[in-house]
Amino acid sequence: MRRSTGQRLSRRPEGGRDLDALRGALVDGAASAGGGVASGLRTARRAAASVGDGRREATIMAAAYGVYLVVRGLWGGTLEEGRANAAALIERERDLGIWVEPAWQRAFAENNLGLPAWSAFYVLSQVIVLPLALFLVYRHRRASYAFLRNMALLSWAGGLAWYALQPVAPPRLIASGLEDTVSTQTPVALDSDLVRLVYNPVAAMPSLHVGMAPVVAWALWRLTPWWWSRALGLVYPVLVSVAVVVTGNHYVLDIAGGVAVVLPAAVVAAWLARAPGGAPTVPGGSPPSDGSGPLPRAAPP
């Protein structure tokens, strides 16, 4: 007996059923993988929003510095590359009419505008002020520490990637007309073998001194109640910007590079600080019950 047309259409070849099964397996696998990735991202975000004990936080910072040393060793660039990129950067500043670095340094030196103090401030702002700000926020404003830590680490990572892609020598290491005032006016010799072990001499662009300054500024403005400390938070990035130029360590465009690194870092850090599936760690939140140190509770902005 001959099959009807409907019966013939309802029957699918064996290969068609196999193809449907394969397609279904791929869809199920993709959905499972996507769910796993989403779950992993949620876990990572919760970890980024959390604050551990002192050993955990110190380990995170030490690991970040270790990554810096590894990247510097593998992709740090040579002094010749750094000088070539610096010459191109100076030409760009001349084209823009902002090649003012030698004039600024001469003005500070000739008018006794405290160049030795600016040179000391250049070192202290990164070696003392930044770690101290992170420590004090961890100790006394722990609810805000995750945001501050993440902003610092993301800015650091952005600058590190930039250094690896484009090593740039500072003005003091090329024939730019600027002197190394830090080495001549403070006990820190920037080009000594010891100091060069811990920093990259061709990492002028962007200026992470400027990139990290908003970390300190935000803590002063948002987490302290005194008018003078909040005012210092407003002017601190400006002071750092002046210091990096007049000491012969950075270019004006390095300041723009530092800002370009820290702004997206702050946006991402604010997003990370709000952990999914739990109470948000809002930047500037109230201190925990054990955060009753000498700093009083900050007034809302």
Beta strand % = under 5%
Helix-strand category: mainly alpha
What portion of residues is helical?
Answer: 55-70%
Number of strands: 0
Q: What's the main sheet like?
A: none
Shape: globular
Describe this structure in words.
This protein is 68% helix and 0% strand. It starts with a helix and ends in a 29-residue tail after the last helix. The chain is globular, with a radius of gyration of 27 Å. α6 crosses α11 (227-246). The chain is built from twelve helices and no strands. It is an all-alpha fold and 301 residues long.
Please give the structural blueprint.
Blueprint: H1 5-10, H2 14-49, H3 54-75, H4 79-96, H5 101-110, H6 115-140, H7 145-165, H8 181-185, H9 193-196, H10 208-223, H11 227-246, H12 252-272
Helix pairs in contact: 3-7, 6-10, 6-11, 7-10, 7-12, 10-11, 10-12
